[in-house]
Amino acid sequence: MNRPNILFAIADDASHMSAYGHRFVHTPNFDRVAQAGMLFMNAFTTNPKCAPSRASLLTGMHTWQLEEASVHQGIFPAKFKVVPDLLEEAGYFVGYTGKGWGPGDWKAGGFTRNPAGPEFSSNRLSPPENTNISAKDYAANFADFLAQRPQGQPFYFWYGGHEPHRPYYFGEGARAGKKIEDVDVPPYLPNDDIVKNDLLDYAYEIEWFDRHLGLMLDQLEEIGELDNTIVVVTSDNGMPFPRVKGQMYEQDFKLPLAICWKNAAKGGRKIDDLVSFIDLAPTFLEAAGVDKHPQYAGSSLQSIFQSDRAGRVDDSRNRAFMAKERHDVGREGDVGYPVRCIRTEQYLYVRNFAPDRWPAGNPETGYSNVDPSPTKELILTQHEQGEEKYYNLSFGKRPAEELYHIVDDSACMNNLAELPEYADLKQSLWNELKAKLEQTGDPRMFGHGDRFDQYAYTGGGMKTNSWEAYLKGNYVDKNKAHREKYWK
């Protein structure tokens, strides 16, 4: 069999696809990949923010191993080998369209191009009116990529949709015919029509990402190469809503993942194994016949591909590890909010190393690690009126330890960490997490956690509500600016 092509499709801030039973979003092309291949029920990013998540995907490394690339709006050091480069060296034709690695500075790290590969983004389109959908014609750019590929050469292509990243024009989902009655609001957000419409806008933009995925699949089918293409569809982190994107709960880093490879993997399967983004890089290299790179912390998914089983396939895949350090700045000294997590088949254990800090950013700088949105505005308005529940869930300070029984509480509403009957389990999970962090060289375990806050921040000052800008009186109210421009 010829070496497979690889089409890697990654949405920007998407938690939902209709294959998982969500009624308010319709993603027939994600579902098509899942039906032709495998739908992963327990897939996890390493860090719930764009840049560090994508860095783990590209390098196969835990986020705490990535130095400057472990933070948001940081620098990506070229000393870390990335999948597109390794595949190109092995004879693959590589490229990307849309959003590659970012946001951050790859040039300062020594890369000569975006770590996702050479860019194909010249084709433009007219987005639907009154939306913030990108004008990049992803599918046409993929067609250009295929046209430039040397005959017979296998390819690796990164399709990085800018959707459903904010901002949205409020009501764009409803204007497109989406129904508010289809929305089930998660328990950590107010059950309010403002939130429901915000979720419809988010869903509408996911569907745009899915539409272009379908056009790409059709192109591959037309040229007879779909069956020998590994198609991977996922997202970089959870949805851009309070308590999700950039935070450390189940729905923040558990993400949609569908993979098909018709020539080599039995389709129609749901996979319950716990898999991580660090597993994808070694998967791609093994499929291409390239030796696993020594930097990789993950393990190839080929054993799952080659099995005909559904459900639990590999019993050793029963743990996932997540972390975060500095995301969007806005605390005293622009320090981060350090967290490490372990997820087992039943439990999520969360270790907050600085519980005295505000997890979503300081009140003075507008809780800067939560994207501006109508939902955020609603929760903060309710808080001003004395409603504490949703404010505390999204913006309030957190204890040093959290423990959730995910089987019964996937929304992480009931912290079990202080209950005496869970003391032994909590200690056992911390011991296991600590051992993993030490084994894999986490600086925070060796007294060097402050280095994560010392890495360069490339996002600027006033534009990102930095603490320095606040002290100088140059604070920018991004929530107000968003409301005036988009929430009409």
Describe this structure in words.
There is one protein chain. This protein folds into 2 domains: 5-317, Alkaline Phosphatase, subunit A; 321-482, no CATH class. It contains 15 helices and 14 strands. The protein has helices at residues 28-36, 50-59, 83-89, 138-148, 172-175, 193-222, 250-253, 280-287, 302-306, 374-384, 389-394, 423-439, 451-454, 467-471, 478-486; strands at 5-11, 38-44, 74-75, 93-98, 104-105, 155-160, 229-235, 254-260, 269-271, 275-276, 320-324, 339-343, 347-352, 401-405. Strands 1, 2, 4, 6, 7, 8, 9 and 10 form an 8-stranded mixed beta sheet that branches. The protein has a 4-stranded antiparallel beta sheet with strand order 11-12-13-14, covered by helices on one side. The chain is of the alpha/beta class.
> What is the residue-mean pLDDT, rounded to a whole number?
95
Distance between the termini: 55 Å
Q: What's the CATH class of the largest domain, please? A: Alpha Beta
Q: Kindly provide the radius of gyration, computed on alpha-carbon positions and rounded to a whole number of angstroms.
A: 21 Å
List the helices and strands and how they pair.
Blueprint lengths: L4 E7 L16 H9 L1 E7 L5 H10 L14 E2 L7 H7 L3 E6 L5 E2 L32 H11 L6 E6 L11 H4 L17 H30 L6 E7 L14 H4 E7 L8 E3 L3 E2 L3 H8 L14 H5 L13 E5 L14 E5 L3 E6 L21 H11 L4 H6 L6 E5 L17 H17 L11 H4 L12 H5 L6 H9 L2
Parallel strand pairs: 1-6, 1-7, 2-9, 2-10, 3-5, 4-6
Antiparallel strand pairs: 2-8, 7-8, 11-12, 12-13, 13-14
Notable traits:
4-stranded antiparallel sheet; single chain; alpha/beta; 14% strand; 488 residues; Alkaline Phosphatase, subunit A
